[in-house]
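Page 37, top half.
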Amino acid sequence: MKDALCARHLDAAALPLIDIAGLFSAEPADRIAVAERIGAACREVGFFCIANHGVDPALQREVFTQAQAFFAQPETAKRAVDKALSKANRGYEPLRGQVLEAGAPADLKEGFYIGEELAENDPRVQAGRFNHGANQWPAEPTAFRPSMERYRDAMNALATRLMGALALSLQLPEDYFAGFCRDSMSTLRLLHYPPQPANAAPGEKGCGAHTDFGGLTLLLQDENPGLQVWDRHSESWIHAEPVPGTYVINLGDMIARWTNDRYRSTLHRVVNISGRERYSVPFFFSGNPDHLVECLPVCLAPGETPRYPAVTVEEHHREMYRRTYG
């Protein structure tokens, strides 16, 4: 794999752009037509953009406003909700707090993790289940929590709809993944990338090359470019330029396991060469922790065997966190 931080500039169409308005239709044929386009993108790239997704633009703008206000605070205020204080991996992650690319410097980004809100007396919390618990909410800005909770709910609904489309694309019943979607272990993550420094250490970048852990990632980007996707055909990185009004969707490793790699979990990274502060908001839809992920029979050719053993969502995530946080 080419190591240089350069990447090819292509048109926005480098990632398939799919109008998903048909997924909201009462007509099965409309939903199937969109699902077929999504399936083609999953097989070829593992990344695509969606338009007409139904998420309120005002809510999206509010999320960016609150994220920018939080990250602009003094370090002491952010550290008051440091992720290290949480048993459920919630809260603030300081600059260079994660290494996503083995052998590379720590990622040049700071973040904030938000999950499903669970009280201390919830049986799952009392049992010490992985990534289960209460969120840490900053004292300022005061609108931070309600904005993020509304947005998280909107993302859960959109991700569930997209999982229905994935089922249709595999010629499965539309509700095939309903059990996976129920009580999903979802994570909303706010990210702030300072500009790539001119004197960066060798290999230093905003976010190292990686594939995502879970099911679906729904990425909201600001206007500043930085996301780069590995193109297996040219064996080079391509810029995924922000397209106003869209989400970038990519498949995580669990979908690849489920489909025996028919659907791709593709390497990507972030290099903020915009010269400006960059903000993005990925939503990781990871599924029900108890759900078993094993090769779908429709993804096995005659005589073919599964490439991966069966694993629960929770088991898979524990291993992925172990790898990236040591």
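Page 37, bottom half:
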Amino acid sequence: MTLAVSETVRALGNRSEEMIRALAEITETEGQITRLFLSPEHKRAAALVSDWMEQAGLTVSNDAIGTVCGILPANNRSSSNKTLLIGSHIDTVINAGAYDGPFGVVAGVLAVSEIQKRGIELPFAVEVLAFGDEEGVRFPSTLLSSSAVAGVAKPEDLEVTDADGVRLCDALKDFGGDPAATAKAARDPDSVLGYLEVHIEQGPVLEAERLSVGIVTSIAGANRYRVTLSGMAGHAGTVPMHLRSDALVGAAELICAINQIAHEANDHGVVATVGELSVEPGAVNVIPAEVVLSLDLRAATDEPRHEAARAIKQAADKIAAKHGLSVGFEQYHEVSTCLCADRFQNTAEKAIKSLGLRPLRLMSGAGHDGQAMSQLTDIGMMFVRCQGGISHNPLEYVEPHDMGLAVEALVRWIETIAEEERAKS
């Protein structure tokens, strides 16, 4: 890597860190980073990203679902009418890290700015997208923003409510969106060249390999369920143990069974997580009558995930019968395993090699907006090393140098795609 490139990488990394920190200050809870979909904090973050896009020379708008869109027109007279989409999300989990999602938006804005500074001509337009609802924390929905752009969001998706009973469509109105016009966010597949996303790895592979960036081959499929176990409330002092229908005891056994099933299927990349638990009536001296728990189930390929889901449901039925409970599974999210396009993997490899780096290919166990966007167009993803593989955690951290390399790699990735497009014409 030449001295000039090193200096550019350093500058891009430092600017990335400044922008990440500015977004991190926009939070619902002081001392944490919490920025939920369609919240006032999401709206403030969207406004900040809009400012950055305008400063980068993009034409900015917000679509009906709240996605910030910044467009750079093609600057080559022989250009096609295609648009290369680049995006990620600016919503977070509760008490999040600073980099998961926002860095992909920052990288897109900085890369497009660099392309203009360097006078790189592209035979296609580039549009940077700042999505919301990738995390699926506030509402029982996930990837709604990117699904709307992909044209697969449904009107009923806007009728769900958050924990406070606020309907998504009402929150969208307060945000400044338009529930009646969300279908207009959909892009024409014939107008799109592809979708690229830069994201922190959220895992330890790149760090173990001593690499700053890597090429994503696929995104693991995922199912999410709301599981309800119902029993009978009773006095904690008067109902004998053998006559109880304790929903929380059943839930505890089910959680252990879920953990065991996932361990047994780990050769297929199956992972299962129970991250939310609600107990009713929730009193110290009352036997729990109802427990609602979340189940997040993922795998490297689809069939092992489906098999694990069947095994978990069978285990739940046995546990329910044992304790005199009823059990129900409500699936509210499913995405299939998503393959990244060979052409984008190959162009990413050329870009990374041009920086003198070893191009490692790896899969993603985490979900991304690319899964929704794959229903619109071919996708490509690049991972960036994160310290300790830690994510969804305040300890999440990415070195500025690695961010600078990722932005430079994205610039070269776009440029390589442009060269291939010209070669076709």
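Margin note: The radius of gyration is 23 Å.
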